[in-house]
Amino acid sequence: MLKNVKRLGLVIGILVTLVLAACGGSGSDSKDEENTSGDPQYGKEINYTITGIEPGAGVFKASEAAVEEYGLEGWEVQASSSGAMATALGEAYDKEEPIIVTGWSPHWKFAKYDLKYLDDPKGVFGEEETIHTMVRKGLEDDMPEAYQVLDNFSWEAEDLEAVMLEVSSGTDPKEAAENWIKENEDKVAEWVDGVDEVDGDQIKLVYVEWDTEIGSTNVVATVLEDLGYDVTITPLDNAVMWQAVATGEADGMVAAWLPGTHGDLYEQYKDDLVDLGGNLVGAKIGLVVPAYMDIDSIEDLDTK
């Protein structure tokens, strides 16, 4: 009888062990130990792809540098455009799917979506940036009124994001600029304080076709038009934009991100143009993800 009891106990013990093993065990031997951080790493889900913008942009180059610096084997920064990036972000966000994009602020996406930058402990993306106004040499003598407005131009990230958000909702950039000016007459008054009106003088502004620069350039152009200028604004690639101001083919731009994004172009052309200083402080670039993604640092990305 005692032998039968012992034999039954042994059988029960074996069955319990098998059940626990099939269920993933108990205590510290849990399924969570397969990923010691407990956080999803997302690489496989998004095919190890970072959705980028134009390959000539500083944030795109910095993202490629981050892939190398953090040893993200198998990852690729996919070239696109700022518009295509925003579309991909919106589609993923609506479905609560994972996505990593090259990001910068100010940008309307931060007003529309709940997003966050991934921590960059190695400092690949640098510190906060300032957007500068650059003009051609001789502009102060040729167009002192326009020079003064461009020199005075300064606003906050919230101002620019308000214009960008309206444009992203379908409003024509010119109309969005006019709406912002009507609602912020006190700020605009500081830019034009003491500036005389002109009679149809022509001025050419250039910009890179990012949402930020579409917004800022249209606002400045509209203010100059209200003073009597005949303003032409032309979108160009990054390098061509800098070259146009440096060679005098264009009169100015309000789209120079420093010290990181356009740092190499500034070094190339700084002796051939005039830097009027920052028109917006606290700009930033980096890798951006929706807040619902359970990851906080570039270091946490997995590799193939």
TrEMBL record:
Keyword field contains NADP: no
Keywords from UniProt, A to Z, are:
Cell membrane, Membrane, Signal, Transport
What Pfam families does the record point to?
Answer: OpuAC
Cellular component GO terms held in the UniProt record: ATP-binding cassette (ABC) transporter complex
Q: Does the keyword Transport apply?
A: yes
Span of domain ABC-type glycine betaine transport system substrate-binding: 41-183, 202-302
- Where, per UniProt, does this protein localize? Cell membrane
Sorted alphabetically, the Gene Ontology BP terms of this entry are: choline transport; glycine betaine transport
For this UniProt entry, the molecular function terms from Gene Ontology, in alphabetical order, are:
amine transmembrane transporter activity; carnitine transmembrane transporter activity
Which PROSITE patterns does the record cross-reference, listed alphabetically? PROKAR_LIPOPROTEIN
Alphabetized InterPro entries for the sequence: ABC_Gly_betaine_transp_sub-bd
State the name under which the record lists this protein.
Glycine/betaine ABC transporter substrate-binding protein
The protein's organism comes out as Cerasibacillus quisquiliarum
Supply the gene name.
gbuC
